[in-house]
């Protein structure tokens, strides 16, 4: 019988996992490798761990992203600065007494099924503290909440001539603020959420900023009709019903027409390859304005380096570049888990409904928050952990392994086809 549950990480996902375990009458033990809660959302100017940059503001509103049983304070703005969101996590943890279940500066180095796993479902876990002291534990279930922003992907080696480039190259996980780029010529590579934010922010300090993209993006502001937050309008039963009833081509045409009437994406160098319903949406209030003012110049895909510059796909070259910031994403890695679970393409985890490895029987390990969504993540993680604990305690059951593998393969083909 599942009783003692390990929670790895005390970020947003870890906190709600602890809370839900307590609601279900289970005994949660959370190991957090740093000295405080908050995970990715705890800004640190000097740190070797991944954390956000100083100016980061949420892309989802407080009304949509809060936990179901703990509304955000009324005096909070609709979109939160990272310091306010961290304060919300502190309020949440204190209100429900979660801190006493967290052990700080403890890193999980090993989590393996016990020899009798097929009968007990238990896990052997090894941790190490800041002094290097190892400790062994046994848990009935494991909830992995360490996130997918763990290993930066920096494709520098893929570009010819990078060895001779004399400027600075860094990944966005190293970026804290624009002070280091004041008066310089900077290229930002990638137009995801970080790429858009960093390019706009750096362009206010740098002498010239370029944003290189291979796929473009549909740029949408945080404010929607009537001055309401975008997600409150875009994510609703009504809009979901319309998407199911109306032809996809019609929705794409109408949505893209509205955005292009505000600023022509092709004229601004932002025109994406994907239709709007197929992804490629960037929530950013500043990017088009910075392009319009000339502080930011759009460039095509990066192709290579010279000694002091960069070569782009359209044949143009920008010389005298001081720094290149790669906003090229992260790879989710879980070195403490068995390698046998990383059986997907490129060694990724294959997960049923983005939660359960189908090869584990009984299913007493679940991965939290390892997905991308068009809306807020926190409410979805809350639903994930409720489901996971029901499976842990046999209150509900998963499909047979063959069916789970079929679903995983189908979802992967749909994703790759986008």
Q: What is the global morphology?
A: globular
Structural class: alpha/beta
* Helix count from the secondary structure assignment: 11
Let me know the CATH homologous superfamily of the largest domain: FAD/NAD(P)-binding domain
Low-pLDDT parts are none
What is the count of structural domains?
2
Rounded to the nearest angstrom, the distance between the terminal CA atoms is 42 Å
Radius of gyration of CA atoms, rounded to a whole number: 23 Å
Family: Belongs to the FMO family.
InterPro entries: FAD/NAD-bd_sf, Flavin_mOase, Flavin_mOase-like, Flavin_mOase_1, FMO-like
Membrane topology: Single-pass membrane protein
Protein name: Flavin-containing monooxygenase
Folded structure, characterized:
The chain is α/β, with parallel strands linked by helices and 418 residues long. It has 2 domains: 4-150 and 332-417, FAD/NAD(P)-binding domain; 154-326, FAD/NAD(P)-binding domain (3-Layer(bba) Sandwich). 27% of the residues lie in helices and 20% in strands. It has helices at 12-23, 62-65, 82-95, 117-120, 193-202, 230-234, 237-245, 248-262, 287-292, 378-392, 401-417, and strands spanning 4-8, 27-32, 102-104, 106-113, 123-129, 134-139, 141-144, 151-152, 168-171, 185-189, 208-212, 218-220, 281-283, 296-299, 302-305, 310-312, 317-318, 323-326, 330-331, 365-367. The chain has a 5-stranded parallel β-sheet with strand order 3-2-1-7-20, covered by helices on one side. It has a 5-stranded parallel β-sheet with strand order 9-18-10-11-14. The chain has a 3-stranded antiparallel β-sheet with strand order 4-5-6, with no helix packed on it. α1 (12-23) crosses α10 (378-392). The longest helix is centred in the C-terminal third of the chain and has 17 residues, at 401-417. The chain is globular, with a radius of gyration of 23 Å. The two termini are 42 Å apart. The model has no long low-confidence stretch (mean pLDDT 93).
